[in-house]
Design brief:
- The complex is a heterotetramer, with 2 copies of chain A (297 residues) and 2 copies of chain C (324 residues).
- With 297 residues, chain A is α/β, with parallel strands linked by helices.
- Chain A has helices at residues 109-115, 151-161, 181-186, 207-216, 229-242; strands at 4-6, 24-26, 38-49, 54-60, 73-77, 88-91, 94-96, 99-105, 122-129, 142-148, 167-172, 190-195, 202-203, 221-226, 246-249, 265-270, 273-278, 285-287.
- The longest helix of chain A is centred in the C-terminal third of the chain and has 14 residues, at 229-242.
- Chain C has helices at residues 76-83, 85-88, 104-115, 137-140, 143-156, 173-181, 220-233, 247-256, 266-269, 273-287, and strands spanning 5-7, 10-12, 16-18, 41-46, 59-62, 65-68, 95-99, 122-126, 161-164, 186-189, 193-196, 198-199, 204-205, 211-215, 238-241, 260-263.
- The longest helix of chain C has 15 residues, at 273-287.
- Chain C is α/β, with parallel strands linked by helices and 324 residues long.
- Chain C is 29% helix and 19% strand.
- The chains are: A alpha/beta (297), C alpha/beta (324).
- Chains in contact: A-B, A-D, B-C, C-D.
- The structure holds flavin-adenine dinucleotide (FAD) (2 copies), flavin mononucleotide (FMN) (2 copies) and FE2/S2 (inorganic) cluster (2 copies).
Chain lengths: 297, 297, 324, 324
Amino acid sequence: MLRLLLFCRGQSARQATARAAPPLTLGVSPRMLPSTMVEESTEILAHERVTESYYLLTLRAPGIAPRVQPGQFAHLRIWSRPDALLRRPFSIYQARGDTISILYKVVGKGTAALARMQPGERLDALGPLGHGFALPSPDGPEPILVAGGYGMAALYLLAERSPRRGIVFVGGRRRTDILCEAEFRALGWEVRPATEDGSYGVRGLVTEPLQVELQRHAAHRKLYACGPTPMLRAVARLAEAFGLPAELSLDEHMCCGMGVCLTCVVPVRTDGGWEYQRACTEGPVFDARQVLWEIPA
Amino acid sequence: MLRLLLFCRGQSARQATARAAPPLTLGVSPRMLPSTMVEESTEILAHERVTESYYLLTLRAPGIAPRVQPGQFAHLRIWSRPDALLRRPFSIYQARGDTISILYKVVGKGTAALARMQPGERLDALGPLGHGFALPSPDGPEPILVAGGYGMAALYLLAERSPRRGIVFVGGRRRTDILCEAEFRALGWEVRPATEDGSYGVRGLVTEPLQVELQRHAAHRKLYACGPTPMLRAVARLAEAFGLPAELSLDEHMCCGMGVCLTCVVPVRTDGGWEYQRACTEGPVFDARQVLWEIPA
Amino acid sequence: MNLSVQLGPLRLQNPVTVASGTFGYGVEYARLLDLNQLGAVTVKGICLRPVRGNPTPRTAEVTSGLLNAIGLQGPGVDGFIRQYWPFLRQLRVPTIINIWGTTIEEYAEVARRFDQLEGVGALELNVSCPNIKEGGAQFGTDCRLLARVVAACRKATRLPLITKLSPNVVSIVPYARAAEQEGSDALSIMNSYPAMAIDIETRRPRLANGVGGLTGPCIKPIAIKLVYDAARAVRIPIIGMGGIQSAEDAIEFLLAGATAVAVGTANFYAPRTALEVIEGLQRYMQRHGLTDVRDLIGRVDMPGAAGPAASENTCTPAESRMQQ
Amino acid sequence: MNLSVQLGPLRLQNPVTVASGTFGYGVEYARLLDLNQLGAVTVKGICLRPVRGNPTPRTAEVTSGLLNAIGLQGPGVDGFIRQYWPFLRQLRVPTIINIWGTTIEEYAEVARRFDQLEGVGALELNVSCPNIKEGGAQFGTDCRLLARVVAACRKATRLPLITKLSPNVVSIVPYARAAEQEGSDALSIMNSYPAMAIDIETRRPRLANGVGGLTGPCIKPIAIKLVYDAARAVRIPIIGMGGIQSAEDAIEFLLAGATAVAVGTANFYAPRTALEVIEGLQRYMQRHGLTDVRDLIGRVDMPGAAGPAASENTCTPAESRMQQ
Ligand SMILES: Cc1cc2nc3c(=O)[nH]c(=O)nc-3n(C[C@H](O)[C@H](O)[C@H](O)COP(=O)(O)OP(=O)(O)OC[C@H]3O[C@@H](n4cnc5c(N)ncnc54)[C@H](O)[C@@H]3O)c2cc1C
Ligand SMILES: Cc1cc2nc3c(=O)[nH]c(=O)nc-3n(C[C@H](O)[C@H](O)[C@H](O)COP(=O)(O)OP(=O)(O)OC[C@H]3O[C@@H](n4cnc5c(N)ncnc54)[C@H](O)[C@@H]3O)c2cc1C
Ligand SMILES: Cc1cc2nc3c(=O)[nH]c(=O)nc-3n(C[C@H](O)[C@H](O)[C@H](O)COP(=O)(O)O)c2cc1C
Ligand SMILES: Cc1cc2nc3c(=O)[nH]c(=O)nc-3n(C[C@H](O)[C@H](O)[C@H](O)COP(=O)(O)O)c2cc1C
Ligand code: FES
Ligand code: FES
């Protein structure tokens, strides 16, 4: 059992709005605790519709921004719906200086209410939350990213901070579902789009060109994926088939986002058995080999 | 028992947004039914702060406006608070053409949410509701109006439509509580203000100058009052003492506003006993002689 | 598209009615909506004599809900027949008359009186109003007393009988079964839940009566479970209610096992809700290719669902506070 | 200004704790707030062995509330002591450990295990979790079974015992009395209310478990009434909970008769709520010129309030489903 003294990093003047409690000796494995989160009242700096269905939200979040690791998320309290109590989780797309941004799709009442918010309004945010991706090492395997939908947003920081570039496979139903292609290319990544209707890139599921690529050359590569569950499952199968390591971001339904309610659990293999682990805390990123896709009988 | 055929008055093109059901033969005394109400989606035309504490809200309400009688109210659904379900009742201050206006004070969550609404937004309104004041007749007693707080708003239409002018006694805690004085003067009424702190008009309660006036001359006068319950009670006592008729607007807490929930009841004298009558339907205006101020044991 | 459903012998043209006490005597709404489009009109609770009800304040708004302690104010059987029946009997849709009493004999007597009135659609026994001292809630939380009330009313009338159950019980199953066994043609689930709110500035309860009944959207998940539990336990149809604001809410009740639904508190702030529910239900059926509303009833896909637990099967002393 | 209160032998520096299952094991919140400012930390329910809990989805948002069926996932006594106790024992405020079992013997055994652990503040018996098949809710809705669970735990430990009651009963009074009689030092009221929600598009329940427990602001008026009813019936202190979001909510519970309060579901969306409640309570006391928080407890001004009705006085067969 690890015993460590946790302290709040980067306590500087510009984090005055961030709330963090005094240091405490914890007796718990750090993996089992929410990461270095703060709760802060953020200000909406910009808010725009970027495609037919996606919005880009930029927040001044001086407490959260400097702490973000790739694959982590923010938990937003959308105030305008007092009958809808819970926060909503969103991957942190970009983090620069004291701002973070979120790329989101309107799917229900929370995101609809969010879409109505204006620059200048405030939004309570909890973050950064979750354990994200391990950064590729300069001399490690070549990173291959696989994204569906807002998965691109979850992978962007990884692409930005990775010491080496690689390929991004991105899929969607149609052309407008392919997000941030230019941004990834600008970082020096090769982008391989696929659409189900063939309106852009290869026609088919994103895992099809991925498989073709791995058949061509698999050695010394590692997969990093975020997207719908069927896609993640297919990526896990490919990783297994090709004997590759893979990290998957599993976006389970969440409630507290910080490890206390046990809503977001995922069945995970352990020595000789399995246990439920929390996507918000031990995850959202899991080692593909550990994830059980069915609950054992 | 009255049997009458009710029909919707003034069904014209400009009432297209108003919802009204087909005529029906009712078997009920019209006093026991909500008045000629409609439910309509109104548009906020103007919304301004008129004093420190009061706001003036103007709505395009083509279904409601032409039906309004003095002393009636509108029941507004303030949409931005989905956890606060109920409508909020407000006297109709002015009704001109297809607009109505409301003069209101922020006292709680509903009125606070209302105050944040902007011109162009829509507000579902039910109205006009309640039985208002009987219009003075040209050769009847001289009308004496008595108002406290937003009571001035409830009395304005009576003052406007009355075939004869008279005196308005208006009271408040301080100068800024005295509303619409100029408007009443512009209609040709004499206004006699009173403030508790003496910052304007006579110092004291509004019923004090009223009493002085009645002592001077009471014959052939009738009182019409709207304001806080203690004021109404004092007016009722004066009316009794001077043997004058009086109509009082009793603003009870309301829920449905249209006679079905039985929230807003007031104990009222009947032949040989008493019964609860609904402030939203038989009222809000009651004959002062009928009102019981305590529930009989 | 078939929307009609049967509540025992009573046919409704569609499954949407209104909840007793939230729609007056129907006539108050006649100007806002065409009552003949409803499945039925359900009126405020009526007992033998006129009742003044409780002092004010009688209602208080709470988070996503309403607290009320009206105290069953009403004109009594005679007053109702004189003042409201001439209007209601003209409607083409049935009137469901909600009745109550303070003794079993009173219930039966009210039922008998309405049995003699021509044109009544059904009687709904309110055995669960939490706002009166004598009787009321007691009948609804004592399974044997409930059985006796239903039996007595069953003898007093040939009209369709609907028993309106109290939510304030450990399990609704024995109550539902007792009502069924004693000849109730249908159940209404649920009435308001006993609750309370305090004004922290005045330190007084927000209702003059102290306690009241909680209704509105906040209670919907409780109502859905009660309907689901009862529907698995009895064969008679259920009118589901509790917080219905939209067609979506109503469909949730149908899926849980309700044959019809009633719109309650929503009538106070959105008087056209019942009609909107009917319209929304039709749109939902269209979108899902359904031609008969009965294909929704009880069709929740509950993994591993079985009957209720054996311990819940009968009206044991556990559910009866009365020592006989 | 005195904020401290006694829960039997246990002293709290202020009356605000958190509700079991909504605050993890405390450590998760250590970065967001200073736990030593709370009245106590109450941890998630623990039983003898590690428990995996229910399949997902385990929670669903409903109007002004939350439905959950977590299924009491937890590390078991040993896992808890190993992983979380080293952190919790460092705190200057007491830890209340919520415990449960599937049999009376298991309850007693868990109590015995914690009796041997130094520094535990109190044990809270969860006899009312609606989310497990065996035991759980049953103990909380059977008055005699409840009495036996409390008695067995009382024998097993000298630690302060808090019995957490189920709201899902006709009257809370006999349960409150039974717990008091068997030596419970305090009561917690209330646990979540059995409820259900259905997704009308998939036609499946929104929880994998089908039914779950309703919590959050929507249940507050129910909780206030239960606390009020129990407070008039017993002498032991009550921890009031159910939908507390603000100091105003907490004060409502104190006025109704709670000696302390617990913040539950609000921790999930507003993690600093408990501290805000403490601050707001102090401001309220200042504004009202109060120097002792105990002057608020039970001080609702209920017109004509008397004791509970005679029929509610004892643990009659009515409240016991068990035939002994
Ligand atoms: C770790 C994590 C990261 C995420 N990152 C992003 C992101 O970068 N961009 C983005 O657009 N979305 C992201 N999501 C999904 C986002 O949280 C949901 O779309 C949002 O919570 C829906 O809220 P709502 O109120 O609009 O929908 P609701 O009204 O609550 O639900 C509408 C529909 O969305 C589904 N839904 C609700 N919550 C979730 C959820 N957590 N996951 C999947 N489906 C859900 C519901 O089942 C329902 O069908 C992420 C989710 C997680 C857990
Ligand atoms: C027939 C009628 C006509 C009215 N006309 C006007 C008007 O022209 N202008 C105006 O400013 N107000 C008027 N009112 C009062 C107005 O309805 C209330 O101020 C409003 O409902 C408060 O809503 P809220 O959500 O802001 O307050 P809440 O948060 O609901 O309550 C805040 C405070 O206001 C009190 N309150 C709530 N409702 C009422 C009520 N119906 N009557 C008195 N006190 C109440 C509460 O007890 C509480 O103390 C009228 C009321 C009635 C019944
Ligand atoms: C103000 C009010 C009065 C009520 N009166 C009665 C009544 O007289 N008889 C009855 O059986 N139920 C009565 N009820 C209960 C409703 O019929 C219904 O069961 C309950 O309100 C739940 O539905 P809802 O949440 O949609 O309102 C009343 C409810 C309210 C809010
Ligand atoms: C997700 C969740 C888990 C809970 N787990 C427990 C538990 O383990 N033991 C327990 O006694 N109560 C448990 N509860 C009930 C709470 O302690 C509390 O009684 C209830 O939530 C009501 O308070 P609230 O409305 O403020 O949430 C749980 C509640 C929730 C929402
Ligand atoms: S969302 Fe609460 S534990 Fe993960
Ligand atoms: S407010 Fe409903 S009857 Fe008057």
